[in-house]
Design the sequence.
């Protein structure tokens, strides 16, 4: 019997077999970060879910081509009604930088963070600002096909032109009526749920592009339609995101992509449930968030402890984050690593039947809608059982680590790499020092310190070291 990865498909509203359409493997698109701030660990939990799906396939010999976008324009401060200001410009104003400087810095830190939590690198990371022509092309096609209309320098998607609107989220047009009535609205809209594909530039000076409808910038949703189709084609297997992406982001993406192409584009949709903190969705706006630097500051310097903690809940169950639970996961992980190191050093034993049985149980739970709590329980069982030889235990656990990504072979106290964002800041600080601009140099030193790294100036140059 060939086992299949099964996952909960939001559109089908059921756990379904995920069989790639092409022999070449699974093609997946994962909604990525908006790079105006440090990603919090809730964001990382959603990115890690996509990584786990990918590892589940790769573990079973199926290659995966994963694309993850970087949103560097057009994501507005009010997600639900897609109104307010562009998050990138707000951050640029607050930090006294250009939006591209903001994007460059937070993209770099995002790469450091995902690496630190053992999320495998995607095949490509398209930036929204690099795909404006493709977005304009899709918008023009939507107008041509009667799905969109231009008004006052903007372009709206007309939801009534797409009968399946609401199929993903269950938000039918009548239901939306009441919700939308409360927001101040553009009288030019044909329907209150119509949403912007292209936004007029208005007063903004940065991040604006020419288009057939005038200078402007893209809406957040059209970005993912354009980048996914450009890099994965007009039909691909899987699209992932957090549960807050279901509406409006993914509902709108379906309407745009299918409206432009004329048939279904995404075969399966999988969404990760929110990480909560103090019982509410972890969010920058709620000020109840932690990022990896916050955790390091509180003495939790191994991001893989957070990875183990996330594995203890299934991806589609909300979980409440606490520092106590993180501390417990950290101790468990250290203990496992220490034991595995001991067992690996013990003289050899052969791999017996029982090992195959454990492997079978591992695959069954993995394929059963990523039952990671069961996988963690299985690891604990293997760690404590006397029925397996020590060498067998370590071999089995190290193999499973290809899915778990916990660096179980790491010797405790191993050297941690200095991330590239820190190296870049150190370079900037050196430049400021060379110009005798000591106040800038000092400001940068504090920024480096907020990453948990102290710089010592030695005759051979700056020497970074972890302080947390
Ligand atoms: P953003 O950088 O705001 O565009 O968000 C990146 C990803 O994180 C999106 O897929 C969101 O759905 C997801 N996300 C946001 N908040 C949380 C949370 N508290 N828990 C899990 N995922 C989240
Ligand atoms: Zn997206």
Sequence:
């Amino acid at each position: 019997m060939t086992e299949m990865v099964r996952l909960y498909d939001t559109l089908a509203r059921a756990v379904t077999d995920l069989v790639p359409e092409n022999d070449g493997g699974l093609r997946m698109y994962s909604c990525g970060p908006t790079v105006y701030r440090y990603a919090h660990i809730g964001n990382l939990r959603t990115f890690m879910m996509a990584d786990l799906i990918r590892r589940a396939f790769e573990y079973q010999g199926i290659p995966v081509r994963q694309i993850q976008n970087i949103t560097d324009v057009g994501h507005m401060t009010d997600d639900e009604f897609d109104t307010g200001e562009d998050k990138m410009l707000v951050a640029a104003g607050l930090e006294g930088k250009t939006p591209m400087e903001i994007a460059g810095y937070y993209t770099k830190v995002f790469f450091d963070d995902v690496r630190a939590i053992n999320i495998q690198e995607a095949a490509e990371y398209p930036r929204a600002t690099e795909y404006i022509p493709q977005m304009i092309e899709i918008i023009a096609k939507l107008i041509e096909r009667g799905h969109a209309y231009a008004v006052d320098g903007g372009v709206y998607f007309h939801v009534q032109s797409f009968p399946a609107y609401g199929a993903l989220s269950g938000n039918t047009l009548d239901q939306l009526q009441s919700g939308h009535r409360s927001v101040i609205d553009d009288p030019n809209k044909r329907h209150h749920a119509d949403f912007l594909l292209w936004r007029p530039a208005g007063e903004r000076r940065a991040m604006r592009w020419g288009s057939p409808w005038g200078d402007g910038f893209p809406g957040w949703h059209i970005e993912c339609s354009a980048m996914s189709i450009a890099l994965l084609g007009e039909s691909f297997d899987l699209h992932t995101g957090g549960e807050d992406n279901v509406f409006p982001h993914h509902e709108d993406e379906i309407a745009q992509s299918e409206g432009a192409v004329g048939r279904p584009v995404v075969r399966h949709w999988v969404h990760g449930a929110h990480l909560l903190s103090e019982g509410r969705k972890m969010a920058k706006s709620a000020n109840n968030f932690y990022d990896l630097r916050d955790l390091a500051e509180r003495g939790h310097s191994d991001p893989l402890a957070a990875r183990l903690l996330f594995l203890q809940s299934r991806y589609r169950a909300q979980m409440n984050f606490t520092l106590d639970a993180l501390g417990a996961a950290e101790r468990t992980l250290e203990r496992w690593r220490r034991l595995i190191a001991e067992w690996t050093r013990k003289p050899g034993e052969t791999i017996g039947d029982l090992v195959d049985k454990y492997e079978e149980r591992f695959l069954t739970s993995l394929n059963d809608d990523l039952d990671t709590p069961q996988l963690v329980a299985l690891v604990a069982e293997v760690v404590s059982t006397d029925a397996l030889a020590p060498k067998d235990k370590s071999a089995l656990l190290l193999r499973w680590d290809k899915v778990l990504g916990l660096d179980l072979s790491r010797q405790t106290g191993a050297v941690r790499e200095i991330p590239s964002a820190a190296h870049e800041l150190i370079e900037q600080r050196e430049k400021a020092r060379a110009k005798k601009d000591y106040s800038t140099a000092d400001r940068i030193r504090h920024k480096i310190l907020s990453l948990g790294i102290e710089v010592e100036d030695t005759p051979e140059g700056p020497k970074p070291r972890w302080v947390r």
In short: The mean pLDDT is 93. The pocket of zinc ion (ligand 2) is lined by residues 31, 224, 249 (CB under 6 Å). The radius of gyration is 24 Å.
